[in-house]
Specification:
Elements (H helix, E strand, L loop, with lengths): L27 H26 L3 H25 L8 H28 L1 H8 L1 H8 L5 H17 L8 H27 L4 H24 L4 H25 L5 H8 L2 H13 L5 H19 L7
Helix pairs in contact: 1-9, 1-11, 2-3, 2-8, 2-9, 3-4, 3-7, 3-8, 4-7, 4-11, 5-6, 5-7, 5-12, 6-12, 10-12, 11-12
Amino acid sequence: MGSMRLNSSESLGTEPRDAQPSGPTTSPDGKRLTGVVLMLAGALSSQSGASIATFAFPAIGPAGVVAVRQWVAAIVLWCIGRPKLRNFTAAQWRLVLGLALVFAAMNLSLYMAIDRIGLGLAVTLEFLGPLTIALIGSRRVVNMVCAVSAAAAVLLLVRPTPSTDYLGIGLALLAAVCWGSYIMLNRAVGASLPGLEGTAAAAGISGMLYLPVGIWVLWHHPPSPAVLGYALAAGVLSSAVPFLVDLLALRRVSAHSFGMFMSISPVIAALIGLVVLGERLDSLAWLAIIVIVSANSVVAAVPPRRAA
């Protein structure tokens, strides 16, 4: 997501099954296939943007890249959500401000982690956030098995070695906490405000929080056109494109299918890290990634128990 991506249909305020068909001749199978293509495009776009961002790190650092990304996200979400700020109550503002702070911390911690431990490992650890939220309060045996499996996989990923970057791992885990907080806050904001007004307002505030940071970084480290292009590309590919694609995909597939498909992001990140950035993971790391992805997929596929 890392990412400011939708996590479920709750972010839209409506379930995908309530969406109107895109055309009178569109079959259910055709809609699902289109949804899968859209989700794949969104996942590839998000992780490609993160990999491109790394090319700008040596010049303006993760903070400079994240500032540009936050500005892009703020513009896109503001144009879509068009929040009516004057109508917000004090309670709604508290939720929006909390979400804005999570936005500000989530992408920075993830990009700093990517800079230190690589794309695949950072994104995999970040996905512990959604998994933890999905497991909270669950008493299903299969979910407990998934939790134990994911915990074992994390220990396998971060096994101590002389070269282990504990700060990078800690930043990735902070990103996971932020993503989990984002899910909870986004649900609360979505229930409190109509449409995408709350999310758009939070993105706008987060973008403003990065104005002094971004201006300072860009002033003291003037980027070349190429570096600025990398940062802008990261903003478009990792924020704007995935968000818009997710909106379209959630009209064609169920929330469970969407959650399951999102779970392949760590694998895509690891593959892009290998192909684009030359980041190599050993066989145990790949095994751990597959276990965590599988745990995410199973948890997303199993519907929650309904209250009696």
